Amino acid sequence: MRNKHSQLSRVEAHSLLKKMGLRKTVARTNLLQCLAEQTSLKSQAEICELLAPHGFDTSTIFRGLTDLIEAGLVVRIDTGDRIWRFELHDRDPDGKLQPTHHPHAICTSCGEVICLQPELLEKLAQLVSGWSLSEFILSGVCPECQNQPEA
C-alpha cells in the first residue's frame, strides 16, 4: 500500500506522467501532488475544493482524473453510495505499479472509508479458488459511530 500523506515533487509527478505516456500538464501534476498528500480517499468535490486556490474548474479536474485513471496512476473507488472516491494507485518501493489495489472498509453510518493492508486481499484470494481478486470493499460501522448514543 502506498505510504499515505507523503509528498510528491513536481519532478516525480512529471516522471510518473512521462512513464505512463501522458503529457505533463499543470492540472495533472497538481492532481497527482494533491492525491499524494491525502490520508484518505477523496471525492471529486473534495479534490475540486482542495485545488480551487490553483484556479482549476470542475471540468478540468474531471478530465484530469479520467486521464490519470485510464493511465493507471489513479484508482476510482465506488463505495456504493454513488460518490466516486479517488486515490493514487499502489506502487512498490521502486515506484512500479502494483497489479492489484489494496482493499477498503466503509462505515455505513458516517461514510468514512479506510484503507486496509494489501495482504488482506491476498488472503481472501486464497479462499476464493480460481478467482483473481482486484478490488474488495468491506462495509460495517466504524468505532466512532458504534460509540455514539442512539437517538
Automatic annotation (TrEMBL):
The keyword Nuclease does not apply. Its cofactor is Mn(2+); Fe(2+); Zn(2+). Fe cation binds at H101, E122. One of its GO terms (molecular function) is DNA-binding transcription factor activity. Pfam families: FUR (PF01475). Belongs to the Fur family. PANTHER family: FERRIC UPTAKE REGULATION PROTEIN, ZINC UPTAKE REGULATION PROTEIN. This is Peroxide-responsive repressor PerR. It comes from Thalassoglobus polymorphus.
